Amino acid sequence: MAAMGEKDLASIALVRRLYEVFRGPDAAGVAELCAGNWVSDVEETLAVLGLARPATWHSLLQQLGTGCHNREQMLEELSVEHTRLFVNAYGGTPAPPYASVYLNDQPMLGGQVTLQVIEWYKRAGVALPPDYPEPPDYLPVELEFVIHLIQSIPEAGTGQAASQLRLVQREFWQDHFRLWIPQFVARTTEESQHPLYTASAEILGAFVQQRAVLV
Amino acid sequence: MELTRRNFLKYLGIAAAAGTVQGKIALDLLRPVPSQATTESNVIYKAGVCGICGMNCAMKGKVVDGVLIKLEGNELDQQSGGSLCAKGNAGINILYNPDRLKYPMVRTNPEKGIGVDPKWKRISWEEAFDLAAQKLSEIKEQYGGKAIAWFGGHKGTDFLKAIGSPNDFCHHSTCDTVREVACEVMLGTSAYIPDFAETDYILSFGWDQFGKAKNAWARLMAKALDRGAKLVVFDPRLSPTASKAQEWYPVVPGTDHALVLAMLNVIISEKLYDAEYVAKYTTGFDKLAEEVRKYSPEWAAELTGVPAADIVRIAREFAAAKSAVIPCHKREAAQVHPNGMALVQGMIALMAITGNFERRGGAMFRKKAKLNKVSPPEEAPGLETTIRVDGADRLPILLECGHAVYQSIADAILEEKPYPLKAAIIYKQGLFSMPNPAKFVEAFKKLFIININIQPDEMALLADLVLPDVTYMESATVSVRKYHALYPQIAVSEPMVKPMYETKSRSTIIREIAKRMGIDQYLNPSGSSVRDQQLSLYGLTQKDVIAQGGVISPEGTEVKYKDLTKLSTPSGKIELYATRLAEHGYNPLPTHRDEWILPKPKAGEFYLVTTRFATHRHAQMQNYRWVHEIYPENYVSINKKTAAILGIADGEEVIVESPYGQIKIKAKLTEAIRPDTVCIPHGYGHWSKYLSNAYSKGANDGDLAPARSIEETLEMDPVAGSNNDCHLLVKVRKA
Ligand code: SF4
Predict the structure, then answer these.
(1) Does domain B594-734 have CATH number 1.10.10.10?
(2) What chain A residue is nearest to B109 in terms of C-alpha separation?
(3) What contacts B552, CB < 8 A, 6 or more positions away?
(4) Which tens digit of pLDDT belongs to each residue from B131-152?
(5) Relative to the CA of B585, which of A24, B165, B309, B516 has its CA 20 to 30 Å away?
(6) pLDDT (0 to 100) of residue A4
(7) Which CATH code, of 3.40.1190.10, 3.30.70.100, 3.40.228.10, 2.60.120.560, is assigned to B192-365+562-583?
């Protein structure tokens, strides 16, 4: 059984940290931000992966420096901005975090795109719990799938199972993930009024661009 | 750096050894399942009921791997007959629209108004329920339960009873109360069904079924025309229905009632009525005959612009037809003009004296299936007062029919008369269902509003707390066929897909709030076991009905006739002279009130008629992609000749102004409308920027409508309380 190397682990850690941001803020998340753990993990993983810190990194650090004096207010600001960017916004939700909205013929959820995602999950041996309320093409779910693929491919070794997983990974990335994430990132960075979301989207974009050529 | 010294490993909770790591980090969401090499999809069909309009067509949903792919009609259902209308087909758009409300949200911007961003913040359901219960409890404590209103049909009546409030509001006084009240007092039921399958003659007073395309009726009427049935349409514009008619008369708006009276006059004076039927099944014929004697065809011709000879001929044809029907639904010639109640009374009388009730091809009573009743575990303590904010307690028959005076609510809130209202729960009622919405916006600024909604429309924007509702594709129902029940049927729906995001059903939401207020014991029980209990009348469960195809006909599919001497009217018969009206001091006969005919428009002035597109239900569908593409925006139809005089070009923007407001809208020039009339399709002009397709497209005709006070309503329509939206003249000029 092959094991994961440093880059795989850094990728997993980075994607997990991004997952926390896009899933939406809570008190625990703000605590992580203010304790500096989120920032140091992201900086370290970017360094391991050879990715530059995003342009907005400095303003994020500044914002955290001042914002962490009033964590309740920071949570409120992050919540309002997360709702505006990704849930419902005046003027149209800038960046709905659902792949189907970008890839279906019309900007709607469901449809062929969602079915395709479900199929990849099935072939890769994962599924959402029946009571999970979000659709399968929700960004946080797809980020978990990225993690799942990174860690299960080396585990699967060299046999047929491994090549099946590699095929799923290639299809998922080439036909899907690398196609919609740049659009999502562009919309988020354009609209975001909080450096946490701008920076996270920029990092996600850079990560996807780098990894898309590897898988 | 050595991998083992990487900090992020701590975060991942993984220990590294010798530069590599074995093992996996746990995932929050995705769970391992046996992987499948094949890509076979799991296709199932689920039983459903369309929830877009009141017809509630039974349908089937094709679900692949938990994703709803297509909706189809259920051929067992007499209403859907195996097909869905355009709106029904577009239902998937409601489910999968990215603009949809997904989580409970609270506004963070205290300022409210047209064009104001509420700056929503997502909150948890616990927080939402606590906030709702706390606010409502405080208001109840300080001002009494009566200070809390429910907007949205009778789905909240039990909750209101539990808090002691009489303020149960629905929109029907802007819609169909005249039909309902007239039917109740004359027939003892709220509506009748046109039996198009067998009819020979259809008379329409602005009734535009091809325009609104209600599934069963549009389909069956098309078949009737194929069979050679005659269709005569009176409508100021060449509606889609009029375009299919053998005869179309562009009647003067608001005068249809005169036509009906003159036809009654002809049929009675020429003794063309069915004397035996009249004697057996009706009461008050002599009084009716006496009343209509004064309404000559010439008098009607003068008012309506329809030649007297045609009125006489059509009356004779109608009486001679083997079967004939005058359909009446909502907001046609009736309801929007003050003689509307009498118009429906006259229509019923015409069909009754020609023997067309409970005759195949005529007007049928609805044969609604029964269900076991469910009631709350405990009887609620009773209302604090019977005096209502909308004043409906002053319209006893309307109130008995279960309706409110919708239009008067805005004034009542603003003036705090008869007492102040402080909070409202608003369910499935858009701001655009309210006449003169600007006035309602001002009124709503004074209230704490909880909005249970599917899409972020204007009402959601005015709310303090927005609670996301499930769609009919994510929930279960037991539905008795109401609209087109020639024989009793029951349709059962099951959730086609699980509720998306964090949406919850209205009943769950209300129960959670009520629990926190300590009043949930007074609510009607709900849920799957209750639906099974309803069906146990037939010894069936929901599962059984679904196994039988989703629709059952508990008494077979044969059309059985109702005994017309055993109706729910005081006499048991069809009351041509409505004694219930007389008892309440109202005019029991369809007398014409000349004072309520609009003055003839002067140059630059127009009558206003409204309509809606077949693909949109009221103001609810404009944001849904498939139907949005068909009719993205509305326009005002103006006669070409009049437009030339006013110098208005096709597609040019114009200002339409009424005594109550004005709108800017594109002109569409046509020959298919009276030169003195303009027509605007309803449902557009959305100003919620959260609706990405519908925002800023077209204009809202409702901005031109009055929101009449209770006093004004009582003067105009003391019986059915209708708003008479189109009883006005508008001015049109270049923008
Ligand atoms: S008529 Fe159309 S919108 Fe109404 S219930 Fe039937 S399919 Fe749905």
Answers:
(1) no
(2) A80
(3) B489, B490, B538, B540, B545
(4) 999 999 999 999 999 999 999 9
(5) B165
(6) 80
(7) 3.40.228.10
